[in-house]
Amino acid sequence: MVRMMNAAKKGIFYGIGVGPGDPDLLTVKAAKVLDACDMVITPVKKMGSTSVAFEIVKSHISDLSKVIEMNFPMISLSQEREALQKQWQENADEIEVLLNQGKDVAFITLGDPMVFSTYSYVMEYLLKRDIEVITLSGVPSFCNLGAQLNIPLTQGEESLGIVAMTQPIEEIRAILDAHQNIVVMKISANNAWMAEELEARGLEKSFVLVSNIGMETQQVVRDIEVLKGKIPYLSTLLIKKNYPLQ
């Protein structure tokens, strides 16, 4: 009699939000999963470069030999979509090989995995391949900004708009028009334009900029002239039309 072998059990793919910068903001569940997983993937803009996400979690991983880098180029999605999609698919293929070996794999990402995260694109590829995916929330930078500075992001019947500075200008202006409170992610992509736009709208005293939040190099800026200059890549802008920020 021929005995049929059960198919090898696939590993689980975990997407883990590591928060904005402070290692103590990593959730208890995320810390447990990171230490238990067979492999931990840290995305980097080029191989061998520094990973902020890894620096946040490394104290929570007892065996650092299971950490591997994976290349995710920092290029414009609108201008280089085809190249990015090719890279995402190649990365998903590599991850699937590990999962098919029965290994549980964690993918770390700054902030929350569902807010402007590269993880979400890889997740979508793997969900189509009958892979079990578990996503663990992290603290987004703008939530930590509000908490650190004791500034409510939204109150009562106010609305909150979230936009990336990499989006088309007309879309950004529409968000600025529509909401009382606006979070601008990836602000360093065109912060000088935003400074001029705030001045044109009479909102030059209605914003706060926080860079490298939760890190030793954290900076808080309320000066419109500083917003016009060079700012760190990891910066988040909060605009509040009806709340005193200065």
Q: If you had to describe this structure to a student in words, what would you say it looks like?
A:
The chain is of the alpha/beta class. The protein has 2 domains: 13-136, Cobalt-precorrin-4 Transmethylase, domain 1 (3-Layer(aba) Sandwich); 141-240, 2-Layer Sandwich (Methyltransferase, Cobalt-precorrin-4 Transmethylase, Domain 2). Helices cover 31% and strands 20% of the residues. It contains 8 helices and 10 strands. The chain has helices at 28-36, 52-57, 81-100, 119-127, 141-149, 169-178, 191-200, 224-227, and strands at residues 13-17, 39-44, 67-71, 105-109, 133-136, 160-164, 181-185, 207-211, 219-221, 235-240. The strands form 2 sheets. It has a 5-stranded parallel beta sheet, with helices on both faces. It has a 5-stranded mixed beta sheet with strand order 6-7-10-8-9, with helices on both faces. The longest helix has 20 residues, at 81-100. The radius of gyration is 20 Å and the shape is elongated. The N and C termini lie far apart (81 Å). Residues 1-6 have low confidence and may be disordered.
